Amino acid sequence: MGEQVIQTEKLTKRFGNFTAVDEISFSVSAGEIFGFLGANGAGKTTAMKMLTGLLAPTSGSATVAGFDVYRQTESIKRGIGYMSQRFSLYDDLTPRENIRFFGGIYGLGKREIAEKGERLLDSLDLTEAADTRLAALPLGWKQKLAFSVALLHEPKLVFLDEPTGGVDPLTRRRFWDMIYQTAASGVTVFVTTHYMDEAEYCDRVSIMVDGRIAALDTPEALKRNFDAADMNDVFIRLARPAKRGEA
Amino acid sequence: MKRFIAFVRKEFYHIVRDRRTAAILFGMPILQLLLFGYAIRNEISEVRTGILDYSHDVVTEALSDKLFSSGTFRYAGSLASEKEIPAAFASGKMNEVVVFEPGFAGRLQKDGVAHMQIVTDGSDPNVSRTVTGYTESVVRDYLSEQRDGSVQFAGVEVVPVMMFNPSLKSVYLFVPGLMAMLLMLVSALMTSISITREKESGTMELLLVSSLRPAQIIVGKVVPYLLLSFINVVTVVALAFFVFGVPCRGSVALLFAESLLFIMTALSLGILISTITDSQQVAMMISLAGLLLPTVLLSGFIFPISSMPVPLQVISNIIPARWYLVIVRAVMLKGAGIAELWRETLVLLAMTLFFMAASVRKFSERLQ
Amino acid sequence: MKQAVVAEGLSKSFGAVEALKAASFSVSGAELFGLIGADGAGKTTLFRILATLLLPDSGKATLLDLDTVAGYRQIRTRIGYMPGRFSLYQDLSVEENLNFFATVFGATVEENYELIRDIYAQLEPFRKRRAGQLSGGMKQKLALSCALVHRPELLLLDEPTTGVDAVSRQEFWQMLRRLKSQGITILVSTPYMDEASLCDRVAFMQDGRILAIDTPQGITKLFTKPLFAVRASDKHRLIIELRSFEHTRSAYAFGSSVHYTDRRSDAAPEELAAWLRSRGFGDATVERIAPGIEDTFMALMENGAAQSRKEEAGDG
Questions:
Q1: How far apart are the C-alpha atoms of B44 and A91, rounded to whole Å?
Q2: Considering the domain boundaries, does residue B368 fall inside one?
Q3: C300: which chain A residues are within 8 Å (Cβ-Cβ)?
């Protein structure tokens, strides 16, 4: 394996006497598509927040894109891309305005934003709709645009939080084509999803249960080890006995 | 009825569980009153008073002594003519001049009425108002003492003149104004927000499907805020009376009844707002900009209506708080009864019915 | 009553957006009927019309033999509705929410406890907890309990499992099966294709239109072309290469394999396997498979999209 883009060692987060994330240790290498699965309430969101520099860990250590999650949170935020189903782009701005705004936030120069923006609009077939308000565009287009915008500042690592929620099966697959392309260009993709077939598309998958990583391997190995037909089976077998998952 | 009680109970849960809202609801009236009250009190700690006495008789001298012995007023010199007043104000030597008309004691005895003027520096209207009111009260005290004695005085007519900004009559203006403002805020803002919150969270869909009638939903939303607002009125009136000695010269029952009417006006406005928007944010903007600002600025609370430009005076007529202010001032300060106030009451009542009818009409049993 | 829901030509526009285009379908008594489609397919608009919360622009619908426009009052007391978002009071506890909705619907928790016992039993340890602090799966169970607490004859569930993890989703569907066995008609929408196979019948929705209605087994018969599952170690490269193959109609990732359809109706798997080996996929395997619900939906979507394009071209 090549360079480690994410590396955690006993990373832990406690809220009061509740341990949301319990000593998780894993690493993700450059260009990998890493699936981060877990039941609702297993600690996924908290772990993501620590890795993206939004939440300080209680104990343990972690580096993301080469930066320390305790001391270099600002560098982390600059060095990563982030896209979530809930927060991505502004619905009342046009694609072009969104690109200009987020390009500005990521500290790109004016000319750079203009050049990259045009290229991006072109590659997404959005040139015609570039000045239409986002709200009027189909969800699939918005999500692709959001993904591209998250990559605008050429981060080494991009976090995708349930990027395909609510999307039709065709659009979902087109979105995964983009993920594959991105990973092939050397960018690491860290993705969460509730669609278990998407777990199969990842290079490696981790499954969190009750704040711990209960399994971490390639989808093939996981299926073999748990003697399961598909990832859905693996997931249900691991997550079902969760003690606190439903609290 | 059971459904209705469940609904109201739920509303109370919402109010009590959102600590910040609860704190604002119950804390704000007290805080506002104390702020307004003490800000004004501190300002009158030293009034530099000049005397312009055209009469120089027993009564005017007794009145002057009474004034300066109260501790609030400091003697800042005597004047010979009204022409000296502007200069005294401009130099800051004085900020109040008390003028007695010639033959003050004689007129008082003969006609039963004598005139005195209280001239204040209107460049700071709040101080002026306070000072004027305070001077009046000293004069009133003096007269009532005299009445108990052997000498017969019918009355002194005090003419306050606020130089540079002529207007206004009373120190206790802020209590009625504050009541109007608080009631607008609690009733209109809070109801409109609580209804739009249900629209935003999607629970309104469930309430509609539950076959509760629109009227039941509206009344269920109104009752808790009606109670809360009423508690606020009682708190403000009680605090004003016990802490600041603001009297209620008229009937307290009438004051509360009129306040209930005004609360209803504000609540129906709040519901009306929530029928035209689905977002809490918009509801809040409309309530603040469309209701609270006019209540503060155009009702006569801060700026006297008589000194507004004519177009604004006309607009002020459609501000419910304007009528409520007239009522509260009249009841609290003048001791007026319903006989004098039926017109204003009728205006408020008509407004309430109009807003109610409009909101029930607009409150859809469906989405959109 | 044979048909619990009958919808005929329901249409609804919001400004220029046609959310629902002449949707017709019917649901029998005690049937578990699924509306499958992505966000923006028109599912929520359809649910709101059925729940009497929106008036259709044209067409009509009856629920339990009552018209959704004229008989909306009676309908409202006889159906249970779960809106698309989590629509309970977050600042009220589990118990308070349930009691509130019971009372508002003119029922009590006690009299209908039998019906919700299965579901509510899992919530009882948390009954003092605020609804806002429950996990996604638990919230959905609470919402379902609240929708059931007045013993409705018909349940309208708009995307109850969206954003919920696979374990909770599985449990949720088991609950729906049990409710159905007690004679309750259920109309449920979902964006998850794998849930379609759990329904008695499904309708595919896309762009405000109903593309097809059938049983989960029957609907896959609409997929007429031969379908192949292709496996090789580098999936991404496999998809790219497959799409460059001259006879390829479509190639999509499907779990651990790639589903491939050919332009020709008589394509042989051996030919494709040989071609793949020639492109450097030494371990490539090709096997003919029966189409699943998702394959069918995607094929119908592509047809539907082609059709809309044709219509637009015809109009213009």
A1: 55
A2: no
A3: none
Task: Give the CATH number of domain C224-290.
Answer: 3.30.70.100
Q: Which of A142, A167, A246 to mutate to test the interface with C (most CBs of C within 10 A)?
A: A246
Q: Is C221 in contact with C67 (CB distance < 8 Å)?
A: no
Residue with tokens 């998250």: A150
The pLDDT tens digits for C237-246 are 899 999 999 9
Beta bridge partners of C28: C3
* Chain B and chain A touch, per 3+ beta carbon pairs within 8 A: no
C-alpha–C-alpha distance, residues B351 and B355, integer Å: 6
Q: Is residue B367 part of a domain?
A: no
A123 part of contact set with chain C, CB < 8 Å:
no
- Domain residue spans of chain C: 3-220, 224-290
**Residues B199 and B347 occupy one common structural domain:** yes
Q: What is the pLDDT along chain B (368 residues), one digit of tens a residue?
A: 788 888 999 999 988 888 887 887 888 888 887 777 666 554 455 678 888 888 888 888 888 888 888 777 888 888 888 888 888 887 778 888 888 888 888 887 777 777 888 888 766 666 677 777 778 777 777 777 765 443 444 455 566 555 443 333 344 667 788 888 888 888 888 899 999 999 888 898 888 888 788 888 888 888 999 998 999 899 888 888 887 777 788 899 999 999 999 999 999 999 999 998 889 999 999 988 888 888 888 888 777 777 788 888 898 899 999 999 889 888 887 788 888 899 999 999 999 999 988 888 888 777 76
Chain B, 168 to 207: residues with Cβ < 8 Å from chain C are: 201-203, 205-207
Q: Tokens for B185, please give them.
A: 């805020």
B233 in the same domain as B111: no
Residue C13 burial class via C-beta count within 10 angstroms: exposed 0-12, middle 13-18, buried 19 and up: middle
- Residue pair B337/B254 in contact (Cβ under 8 Å)? The answer is yes
Tokens of B276: 């035209």
- CB atoms closer than 10 angstroms to residue B107: 18
Q: B311 and B223, same structural domain?
A: yes
End residue of a domain, out of B169, B196, B214: B169
In a domain, B281, yes or no: yes
Check if C70 contacts A (Cβ < 8 Å).
Answer: no
Q: What are B86's two structure tokens?
A: 């502007």
The CATH number assigned to the domain holding B65 equals 3.40.1710.10
Q: Is C35 on the interface with A (CB under 8 A)?
A: no
Pure H helices in B44-124? 58-69, 85-90, 104-110
Three-class SS state of C261: strand
pTM as predicted = 0.80
Task: Closest CB to A166: pick one of C39, C136, C255.
Answer: C39
Same domain? For B188 and B160 the reply is: no
A167 to C41: CB separation less than 8 angstroms, yes or no: no
For C3-220, CATH number? 3.40.50.300
Chain A: closest CA distance from residue C29 (Å): 29
Is residue A207 within 8 Å of A52, Cβ to Cβ?
no
A4-239: CATH architecture: 3-Layer(aba) Sandwich (3.40)
